[in-house]
Recover the amino acids of this structure.
């Protein structure tokens, strides 16, 4: 048991747990050294738990003669992941280390994009013929299990043309009478995944059907491989990371935070930040239009950051909720009108709450400290009325932007909080000064 | 095959796929009606794919006499999930529908918090004794498979006191010689999960060890159940949703967007929005301190939204990247100094880029359109210098806030983009006016 394991003496190097712990902090040569200190069978287990990225880096740091025995440990789909993480020029040399049938399998898998069902699948699955008896099938599978099949949880029943006739779970096979033919116990309502389905849809399908594995088929309905639920955990995590990073207003990093190069990190952040900055420049253009009003009533400028940030914050909330609901499949394009109705109500409610707080604050300070001059009641009214307008508008704009982006074919997660805030800032300025001009006309303005 | 399934005639109701599709849009009575139109075995499959929340709602809408046969279909851990989604007053009546041993199992599971390993686990796992032969074990498991065990992917080897001696994967058992004792082929380095481990840590453990299931043990090392990877998919998705909603500046909704009540939704959003609004009020206090400067040089106010939003945007980026890296276990508390060093560099780089763009813009407009009066070069200098300061500060503050929150024992994801933007707005105003006063002293001010 792991808990009972004793720490190895230090001169023998780190144990696998310590090495895994220290891994992100080690430079390549220290990683290599730590790895080579492990006993062979421990090192093998350790190697399997590394990410494909780390596996690729480690392998390339090894002397060429040692690489083969490590690469050949991996299943074809894991080799593919590793190759996709390796530098372009290393791929062919690595591929040449495999045996001929595996090379063919890997090349076939490499043809699929990494984020499609075909790129996720394993080609090593358990299969039987429909006319086998349960006992024959179990014996046959026992032989297949000696080879490296990905999962024996489901066994697929295929015809001679590789078409799927049915599926039988291992538990069902096990529980059945030994003399029954497989055909009689298999289920025929098999949920299949087209090979070019993108990984986010595949993970939705898993969530919906609650299966441990699903077969991947080509256009002709021929079985090509299986996707297993443990690959889906990685997909879900990866997609969530991408969405979170986009919502935060950067490009997706596509690499662990501490490992990505500084130049690359600045580039990914600068692109969005500069775009937002250019958009935000419109605020100074908008402000320019109200320069005379500000000069006449400087007190108006005091509430400007408060008002535009309230619009930005309510927009961030709305856009984030809608983006996530879309990613989870809870909200679809055609639900836009239901979302509009909900967000108008929510925006009004939230606007009224903020307006009430703002009104109270300005009235109290104006009345007791004389902070805002003699017209503080009018100022309080102008600020509150603007808040309702700005929050309502921010909420609506924030909730609709993901729909517009998806409708245009972009990723709705690009409707990041900063993007919405920028959009709402310019209109916030316009709403504020328009409302203030009306209310303060003849007094302050 | 699903693709080949024909649509049922309309007067027979919706098929299971159409019903699943329409589900979120239907009201309770339409759901019930659609459900009862399904053939019994189709309805069973359909029932299993529903979320625990939907299962609970559907069950409560059924006449009391029909409830039992549905509830008894579920495994104990699924019953627990269903009960946790049911209203308080319905739980005991539902529990009384189960048979006595299942009631005991469910009550034991209910004692665990929903988000702990014990709350995720299933108590129905495959177990054998160490001195059985492989053939005996397979026969024995074949009998167990007829009962409802959660997964047969791993078989646990237990001693008489329920302590785990080892684990053998089904594939290994299958591939082994029939006469070997299980003891000889089992692995003894079993990774175990303590029953009170929180679900986020459990999902990290799954990611690290790449296993399909893990045994849950109590303090005495006795096996209590297993957690399977398909439960982890839901955990990962749930945790990501919570983080994303917090990053967007709301409390986690804990319910699908379209299903949560309007009052509840406004409440969850209003709490944060009002808190941010109160914080943002400090901006008008800060502005008040510079009222004289604004009155003297209104042109300064024009760039205020641009500058504070740049600070907010760079802060959002930094905080989001750090929150996600923490959630993925890539960055730990003790890495704070490495993050500081990276973010100082990134902040300086990003600040310089925005400053250059801002400088260029003001110089060009000032030179060719005379937009900003005679002192446009000084204004351009003041804006650019402030941008470097504000972006650097926003980046640093945004990246450190998640560390401070985690260190204080809060969820780092509460360092939402709007929270950071609010924090940075006030300091942005101070940085801008301080820098501008220095640079413009004797000319505009």
């Amino acid at each position: 048991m792991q808990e009972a394991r004793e720490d190895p003496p230090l001169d023998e190097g780190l144990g696998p747990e310590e090495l895994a712990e220290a891994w992100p902090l080690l430079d390549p040569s220290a990683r290599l050294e730590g790895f080579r200190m492990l006993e062979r069978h421990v090192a093998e287990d350790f190697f399997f738990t590394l990410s494909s990225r780390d596996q690729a880096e480690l392998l390339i740091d090894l002397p060429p003669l040692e690489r083969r025995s490590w690469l050949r440990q991996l299943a074809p789909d894991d080799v593919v992941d590793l190759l996709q993480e390796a530098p372009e020029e290393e791929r062919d040399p690595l591929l040449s280390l495999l045996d001929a049938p595996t090379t063919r399998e890997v090349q076939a898998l490499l043809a699929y994009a990494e984020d499609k069902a075909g790129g996720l699948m394993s080609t090593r699955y358990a299969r039987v013929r429909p006319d086998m008896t349960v006992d024959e099938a179990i014996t046959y599978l026992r032989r297949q299990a000696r080879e490296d099949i990905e999962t024996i949880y489901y066994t697929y029943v295929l015809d001679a043309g590789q078409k799927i006739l049915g599926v039988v779970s291992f538990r069902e096979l096990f529980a059945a009478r030994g003399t029954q033919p497989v055909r009689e116990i298999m289920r025929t309502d098999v949920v299949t995944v087209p090979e070019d389905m993108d990984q986010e849809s595949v993970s939705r399908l898993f969530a919906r059907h609650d299966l441990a594995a699903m077969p991947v088929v080509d256009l002709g309905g021929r079985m090509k491989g299986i996707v297993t639920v443990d690959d889906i955990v990685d997909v879900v995590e990866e997609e969530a990371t991408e969405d979170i990073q986009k919502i935060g207003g950067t490009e997706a990093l596509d690499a662990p935070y501490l490992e990505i190069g500084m130049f690359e990190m600045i580039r990914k952040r600068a692109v969005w930040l500069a775009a937002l900055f250019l958009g935000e420049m419109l605020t100074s253009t908008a402000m320019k239009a109200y320069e005379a009003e500000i000069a006449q009533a400087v007190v108006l400028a005091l509430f400007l950051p408060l008002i535009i940030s309230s619009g930005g914050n309510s927009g961030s909330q709305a856009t984030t909720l809608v983006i996530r609901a879309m990613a989870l499949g809870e909200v679809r394009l055609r639900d836009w009108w239901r979302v509009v109705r909900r967000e108008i109500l929510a925006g009004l409610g939230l606007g009224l709450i903020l307006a009430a707080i703002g009104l109270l604050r300005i009235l109290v300070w104006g009345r007791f400290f004389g902070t805002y001059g003699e017209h503080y009641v009018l100022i309080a009214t102008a600020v509150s009325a603007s808040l309702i307008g700005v929050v309502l508008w921010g909420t609506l704009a924030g909730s609709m932007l993901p729909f517009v982006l998806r409708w245009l074919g972009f990723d709705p997660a690009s409707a990041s909080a900063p993007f919405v805030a920028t959009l709402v800032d310019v209109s916030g300025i316009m709403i504020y000064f328009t409302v203030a001009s009306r209310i303060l006309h003849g007094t302050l303005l």
About this structure: Residues 1-11 of chain A have pLDDT under 50 and may be disordered. Chain A is about 65% helix and 5% strand. Chain A has three domains: 11-115, 126-229, 262-440.
